[in-house]
Amino acid sequence: MVQNQQIGRRSFLSSTTALGAGLAIASNSLADENSTPSDELKIGLIGAGSQGRNLLNSCVKLPGIRIGAICDIWESFNLNDVAEIARRHGHEAATYTDYQEFLSKQNDIDAVLIATPDFCHADQTIACLKAGLHVYCEAPMANTIEGAKRMALAAKESGKLLQIGQQRRSNPRYQFCEKRILKQSKLLGKLSAANAQWNRSVLPSRGWPRRAPLEDPVLTQYGYTSMPQFRDWRWYRDLGTGPIGELGVHQIDIFNWFIGSNPKSVIASGGTDYYSADTHECYDTVMAVFEYEWKGKTVRALYQTINSNSNFGYYEALMGDEGTLHISETEGTANVYREPAAISWGKWVDLGILVPPPEPEKSAGDTEVVLDIHKTVRPDQYTLPVAYDKSVTMYHLENFFDSIRGKARLSCPPETGYGATVAALKIYDAINSGKKIEFNPDEFKV
User: Fold this and answer.
1) Is 90 helix (H, G, I), strand (E, B) or coil?
2) Helix ranges, 168-247 (H)
3) Are 153 and 34 in contact (CB under 8 A)?
4) Strand order in the sheet with 41-46
5) What torsion do the CA atoms of 370, 371, 376, 382 make, to the nearest 10 degrees?
6) φ and ψ at 68, to 5 degrees?
7) Count of CB atoms within 10 A of residue 24's CB?
8) What is the mean pLDDT of residues 308-316?
9) Is the pTM of this model over 0.70?
């Protein structure tokens, strides 16, 4: 297990003045050189809902990871169930219903995974960083830009690592595209536009086991007014960020990453078009257009999320005058399309960067029929030589743990997560004002 810094965690909790400039390091740097890394890390989990379970199910498959503590306010359901999953995999984890009690009592933890509702992220992350823990926090960073900035500053002050859960940054397919398709081969040519979407079917209210509700005093203590609100917190503006944050922050980050800059502006339209605004304060339908600068030219990027129809699912696409990249976390979506006028891509096939389209089959009796119509020529479809050998979540967790061990650098440090958070949450301002929002470059700086 990675040893703690010599300053005790309770000292961090009681006095933040100990965090002088000498302790501050870049949050995407390698782990503290004064620590003594080993292969085993003992971790805690705060938030044992659906995403917390997903993180834990990945962690129990990773060598050198021990689950030491689990915290969730819903003891009779989330906490007990997830603790049992850990036990079945040989992890005897202490359990807590309050994260502050967890921090004050659990002195043998190296890192914490935070998978709580968005409005909890900032305070919990900052407390864990001040307690001397490395933190993996699910995306979006926070439900406010101010909260996300506080997290990034706390990471700098503490000298601890903070990984934001924008997991495409650790995905080998996305990394391959950024390095090989965009930078090395420049297959797309001059970038001209981008688009991304995440459409979902109608989602019913989540409900809960009637034998195990949270008591009203507990709900009130932790910021909820009722069990329905607690279960569907994503749709309440004071608690979550809606699909704009929950989904959009991941895909808008791909715009930032692949285009290589933060946006200059955004204009958007959206609203609660399908659900009732009484239960869905966050907009269920959003269409936004960002403007980016790329080599002195403007690249426009369309982002869409609707929550009443799942057709075409979720993907990201980047378009240039010589080709189009169409990519997704789903296994079957990883294609590059060559524009008919572009030069041959045979070189890149020979180098193993592209898998060529199959030769069309032709039977002996086939003859070519020429029709007197105008028809767009379908571009050649190439695939990528990158397949997944594990869950997309596991890649990001591995990067986080290897960064703690000093063997890697964070794929998504807080500065990166902050940029995507600002871009995504500003969509609300654009919708509500009915105006184009111009970004000041300083807005993306921590």
Assistant:
1) coil
2) 172-176, 216-221, 227-231, 242-246
3) no
4) 94-96, 65-71, 41-46, 111-114, 134-137, 162-164
5) -40
6) -100, -25
7) 14
8) 94
9) yes
